UniProtKB/TrEMBL annotation:
This is C-terminal processing peptidase. Residues 184-252 form the PDZ domain. Pfam families: PDZ_6, Peptidase_S41. It catalyses: The enzyme shows specific recognition of a C-terminal tripeptide, Xaa-Yaa-Zaa, in which Xaa is preferably Ala or Leu, Yaa is preferably Ala or Tyr, and Zaa is preferably Ala, but then cleaves at a variable distance from the C-terminus. A typical cleavage is -Ala-Ala-|-Arg-Ala-Ala-Lys-Glu-Asn-Tyr-Ala-Leu-Ala-Ala. SUPFAM superfamilies: ClpP/crotonase, PDZ domain-like. Belongs to the peptidase S41A family. PROSITE patterns: PDZ. It comes from Morus notabilis. Protease involved in the C-terminal processing of the chloroplastic D1 protein of photosystem II. This proteolytic processing is necessary to allow the light-driven assembly of the tetranuclear manganese cluster, which is responsible for photosynthetic water oxidation.
Length: 515
């Protein structure tokens, strides 16, 4: 299976447990897509000097139209060298080219960001999901931002101007991060990082930074920070308008250092009535596995003793699918009769990992998800010759913290008739981002499409509603369980949603409707 945009430099990464709002789309050979609709961008950068010793920079991009009026109004700068930008594409449909000149900053680090600006502008111009660019002239935005960047003296100030330009698109998930931030954003493949152990995301309705979940045993968990809490300040800096990756960058740091955060409860009562508390957190080496499992034994209504395999998936890292396979293989060897897959407070991660996990439970050539590009073209992503590891009855637990890849997985299993959903409506993050490392080491995140479930239900800003709701209260009545790995006996015994899931499994067994 070819990627949607083979000329686009997609860089794989691991999702940080303190940043959750990015879900880049990656494909493997096990999936197929009916066509390729997204525009493709080929980027070349060369540096030349002409005989007059003025510096000329040539950046070549794809373009659908002539760049109108870019450079108008900026040629008045005296005693500056000119940057020449040639816009082109290999595609016959996008074959126009154009060279535009404008002043190059005297500050080398700012000039470097100028090149990054045009590179980012071109990528967004060809791939951003909204072809109206939030009802604005995107070509004119390049001109305006270049004028604003020209007199600056620092790269940080220049990056701020690019961020301001991107914010006009009205999409919090399309953004740029500096080279330093991108290096911090990328986590080693062993799943270790130095930080406080939080999964955070921007709440789409309010724009507030909220805690989706915490790594068990992490400094944040030990300090009593709860799912749903709002982050108000980090080290005295208010977080109004700050995206989740920037906040995550502030939370990360070398083990042994500390960070002070202010949080406001969002779980027990309204935030307007909740006091803000200050918490000092130590940064540590955070080790986490995306999978924990257990065997829950209970009696069915007719008196039979059954075993249910409980698997909790906390995030979609590169190891999610192989770890899931190992967990199911172990549970099958112990004779389980049914499964509960817990995706509550799973903020997402690598979408490819979500698709890989889905095929563990599905057969044949089922549709896993549909994508809709900026021209409204829809394409399904299907399993190719799938063979499920088990056909035992399955219930999937979801809630408001289940986002992105979690929603894709839940939708795939539900719409294909493989699982019943129990819990609460999911987060509603159904956008596809590509992640491209730019020439200066920074990274551009661009929303290029939207997801629809296999049954064509919109996910973005809507979420997925469960078949059966359950209360979030913790019960006191014990139940027999045999636990392994990181699952807590007390939490499973008191989890009312698991009791509801067990009831639904009993109903499936009584009807003989094993999937």
């Amino acid at each position: 299976m070819e990627p949607l945009c083979p000329n686009l430099d997609l860089k794989p990464f691991h999702l940080s447990p303190i940043s959750t709002n990015i879900s880049p789309l990656f494909y493997s050979h096990r999936y197929r897509s009916s066509n390729r609709r997204l525009s493709c961008l080929k980027r070349r950068v060369s540096l030349q000097r002409d005989d007059s010793s003025s510096k000329s920079e040539e950046l070549q991009f794809s373009g659908k139209e002539w760049l109108r009026s870019v450079g108008k109004g900026i040629f008045g700068f005296a005693a500056t060298s000119a940057a020449l930008f040639s816009v082109f594409c290999d595609s016959p449909a996008l074959s126009e080219s154009l060279t535009v000149a404008f002043p190059v900053s005297r500050a080398p680090e700012v000039n470097k960001v100028q090149r990054t600006l045009v590179e980012a502008w071109g990528l967004i111009r060809e791939t951003f999901v909204d072809p109206t660019f939030n009802h604005q002239d995107w070509d004119l935005k390049l001109q305006q931002t270049m004028v604003e960047i020209f007199p600056l003296n620092s790269a940080d100030a220049a990056y701020n101007k690019i961020s301001a330009m991107l914010s006009t698109l009205g999409d919090p998930f399309t953004r740029i991060i500096s080279p330093k931030e991108y290096q911090s954003f990328t986590i080693a493949s062993d799943g270790n990082l130095q930080g406080v152990g939080l999964f955070i995301s921007v709440e789409p309705n309010t724009g507030h930074l909220v805690v989706l979940s915490r790594v068990e045993g992490s400094p944040a968990a030990r300090a009593g920070i709860q799912d749903g809490d709002e982050l108000v300040e980090i080290n005295g800096e208010k977080l109004d308008g700050v995206d989740s990756e920037s906040a995550a960058q502030k939370l990360r740091g070398h083990a042994g250092t500390t960070v002070t955060v202010k949080v406001q409860s969002g779980t027990n009562f309204s935030r307007s009535e909740s006091p803000i508390r200050e918490v000092k957190l130590s940064r540590e080496n955070i080790k986490f596995s995306p999978i924990s499992s257990a065997i829950i034994t209970h009696k069915t209504p007719d008196g039979y003793l059954t075993k249910t395999g409980y698997v909790k998936l906390s995030e979609f890292s590169q190891t999610a699918a192989p770890d899931m396979e190992n967990a199911i293989r172990e549970l099958e060897s112990q004779g389980v009769n049914s499964y509960i897959l817990d995706l509550r407070n799973n903020p997402g991660g690598l979408v490819k990992a979500g698709l890989d996990v889905a095929q563990i439970w599905l057969d044949g050539d089922e549709t896993l998800v549909n994508t809709v590009d900026r021209e409204g073209n829809m394409q399904p992503i299907n399993i190719v010759d799938g063979h499920a590891m088990t056909h035992d009855p399955l219930v999937v637990l979801v809630n408001e913290g289940s986002a992105s890849a979690s929603e894709i997985l839940a939708g795939a299993l539900h719409d294909n008739g493989r699982a019943i959903l129990v819990g609460h409506k999911t987060f509603g993050k159904g956008r596809i981002q590509t992640v491209t490392e730019l020439h200066d080491g920074s990274a551009l995140f661009v929303t290029v499409a939207k997801y629809l479930s296999p049954a064509l239900h919109d996910i973005d800003k809507v979420g997925i509603a469960p078949d059966v709701q359950c209360t979030t209260e913790m019960l006191t009545s014990p139940k027999e369980s045999i636990l392994k790995n990181n699952s807590s006996a007390s939490s499973l015994e008191a989890d009312s949603c698991i009791l509801v899931a067990e009831h639904e499994l009993d109903v499936q067994e009584s009807k003989g409707t094993a999937s």
